[in-house]
């Protein structure tokens, strides 16, 4: 009986450690003025005017989203500003490694450009659950939520923001093909 109990304890510990290792605690960037999770990337691009960069940003949005008109919330060519409201699935692995979708992250992307420079700010992350698991604004998530789910939602936000920034960076730095 002792052996069976010991095996059960070890198995439970191993399964629990497998689950938490997929969504360990992580540090994400916060905007000091708002207290919100916020990813900022800016880059100087020699030889591109504000209009060139604005057009490239719009093309990137078109290539990134299935329905770009539905994500663009504000667009002003004169000021070089585009604001989108975007969404991504939150994926969580259970104790056995099966990945399930655990709602959606809604977030804002603010794109600014001027002659020779552009900036992307990804912020205002909000979680909408599949059932009654809406966590709301994820910068307030820690209160009363399971640490594992909290870490997975934060990790999903981190992965999505970094992938979008990398995609944008690559697109902006790819020379236009003439035909």
From TrEMBL:
Provenance organism: Flectobacillus longus
Protein name: DUF4468 domain-containing protein
PROSITE patterns: PROKAR_LIPOPROTEIN (PS51257)
Keywords annotated in UniProt: Signal
Signal peptide location: 1-21
Any matching Pfam family: DUF4468
Gene3D superfamilies attached to this UniProt entry: 3.30.530.80
Domain DUF4468: 44-126
């Amino acid at each position: 009986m002792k052996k069976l109990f010991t095996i059960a304890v070890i198995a439970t510990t191993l399964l629990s450690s497998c689950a938490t290792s997929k969504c360990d605690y992580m540090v994400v960037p916060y905007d000091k003025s708002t207290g919100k999770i916020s990813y900022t990337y800016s880059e100087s691009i020699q030889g591109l005017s504000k209009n060139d960069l604005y057009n490239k940003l719009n093309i990137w949005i078109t290539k990134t989203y299935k329905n770009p008109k539905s994500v663009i919330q504000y667009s002003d060519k004169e000021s070089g500003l585009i604001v989108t409201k975007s969404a991504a699935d939150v994926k969580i692995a259970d104790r056995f490694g099966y990945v399930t979708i655990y709602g959606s992250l809604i977030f804002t992307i603010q794109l600014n450009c001027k002659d020779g420079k552009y900036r992307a700010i990804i912020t205002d992350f909000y979680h909408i659950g599949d059932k009654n698991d809406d966590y709301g604004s994820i910068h307030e998530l820690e209160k009363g939520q399971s640490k594992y789910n909290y870490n997975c939602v934060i990790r999903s936000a981190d992965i999505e923001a970094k992938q979008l920034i990398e995609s944008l960076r690559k697109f902006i730095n790819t020379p236009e093909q003439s035909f």
